[in-house]
Design a protein that fits this description.
The protein is an alpha/beta fold. The chain contains 13 helices and 25 strands.
């Protein structure tokens, strides 16, 4: 196991990465998009894998890592701990955390992104003490971390509150049976990372099975962990004494693939989306088919065009292999172009329908029934106007709407998109989009 160096002064503060500069996208829509666009690595896989390098006694090479705001913030936290984290290629990282020292987490760095919660498990497993401020991230409703705390407590953590932070300590983590009360992705990942160096056997029941959870487990196994049940809702972990350096390639982003597929369906043209893993897109392709979207799937490429007759559909988000909540908003734009009334139900998060207010400004006919359900009647033409992206997925959704709309759209708060989509504006320009960052 990596050493737990305590040579830094107790009051050391991690430097918080600078916030992204405010940005706007100016979009001129209603023009065909044609060409090939490659899906990048998945942010939701890369960030937990980066956090997991804290458990590894040796350098790790991680490929297909998207250059995103959240990835940069996670790397800055690791560097501030004393780790070496360098870009060794356009999307390749070399990380060595052997010299890491717990120090003191910067509240601003942690609060700036939800995924900082993923540091809790590995820091506790390695240093046996961590003080963790309440993490931040997108404003999409109440997302308490009690599930994380309960899982770590099952493994032997003592938990206290101190001035708005959680203080976790342990004399040594011990394997246990953990029953999660919900299919929480990040709680599953935290429990998994804490358990790989715990003494004995851990069983995680009602574990999330999303592709990025599977990718984290495969990275850990490549480093010497012994995780079974990958891809199921019951994970088993045999604690290891040490994890060694390894190499890993991050999976392609299923959310980006689905977002681009919707873009191809609502703009005039043909988009070929490459670098996908079809096994991660099964429910997404099913919903596209039900909506009448015309597409062709061949190996790792999906070709989508706007020739299909779009029709209303019913959509409910569910844990994997169900429909992902992060694609609910892009399918909301698709619904505006479908004949009939579409029902979209997102029971996983409340208040994730705020983007519909922006679509209504553009001409959408939508009725928000409650914080979880919306009815969308169509087809309705969309018209450019001034709108704002309130979170990552809403921002990308409004880019789709702007490209499908007539006239000019000004999207404020576009910097939030950089948290999850690498150079989206430049990549869309390459297939004919008229989109400018100002």
């Amino acid at each position: 196991m990596p050493k737990a160096d305590s040579s830094k002064p107790a009051g050391t503060t991690l430097k918080s990465p600078p916030p992204p500069a405010p940005a706007r996208f100016v979009i001129r829509g209603d023009r065909p998009l044609n060409g090939e666009i490659r899906v990048g690595g998945m942010k939701n896989a890369a960030t937990p894998i980066i956090a997991a390098t804290l458990l590894v006694d040796g350098p790790c090479v991680i490929r297909n890592v998207p250059r995103l705001t959240d990835v940069g913030r996670m790397l800055d936290i690791l560097r501030s701990l004393g780790s070496r984290a360098e870009w060794s290629g356009p999307n390749e990282l070399t990380i060595d955390t052997r010299e890491a020292d717990i120090g003191t987490l910067d509240r601003k760095a942690v609060k700036s992104m939800r995924s900082s919660i993923l540091l809790m498990g590995p820091l506790l497993a390695r240093f046996r003490r961590v003080t963790m401020p309440e993490p931040g991230g997108c404003i999409i409703g109440n997302r308490p971390i009690q599930t994380h705390l309960d899982a770590l407590q099952s493994l032997g953590a003592d938990i206290a509150r101190d001035d708005g932070s959680y203080v976790l300590t342990t004399d040594g983590l011990v394997g246990a049976i953990i029953v999660l009360p919900e299919f929480s992705v990040t709680a599953t990942e935290n429990a998994l990372m804490a358990a790989v160096l715990a003494q004995g056997r851990t069983t995680i029941k009602l574990a999330a099975a999303e592709p990025h959870v599977q990718d984290l487990a495969r990275f850990l196994n490549a480093a010497g962990a012994r995780i079974g049940g990958i891809g199921t809702h019951t994970l088993t972990v045999e604690g290891a004494d040490r994890l060694q350096g390894t190499e890993h390639t991050v999976i392609p982003d299923q959310i980006e693939a689905g977002t681009l597929a919707v873009l191809g369906a609502v703009t005039k043209g043909t988009l070929r989306i490459t670098g996908i893993m079809p096994e991660h897109l099964e429910i997404i392709l099913l919903m596209l088919r039900r909506a009448g979207v015309s597409f062709e799937l061949r190996e790792d490429a999906l070709t989508v065009n706007s020739s299909g007759r779009l029709q209303a559909f019913r959509l409910q988000t569910m844990p994997f292999p169900g429909f992902p909540t992060d694609l609910q908003a892009p399918f909301g734009v698709l619904a505006t172009q479908c004949a009939g009334t579409t029902l979209i139900h997102d029971p996983l998060f409340e208040s994730r329908l705020g983007y519909m207010n922006e679509l209504t400004k553009m001409g959408a006919n939508a009725t928000i029934c409650d914080p979880h359900r919306v009815l969308v009647s169509g087809p309705t033409p969309l018209y450019g106007t001034e709108i704002r992206g309130i979170d990552l997925r809403a921002g990308a959704t409004l880019v789709i709407a702007g490209l499908a709309a007539q006239g000019e759209t000004v999207l404020h708060g576009a910097e939030v998109i950089d948290r999850g989509y690498e150079s989206l504006d430049r990549r869309l320009q390459a297939v004919g989009a008229d989109i400018r960052r100002i």
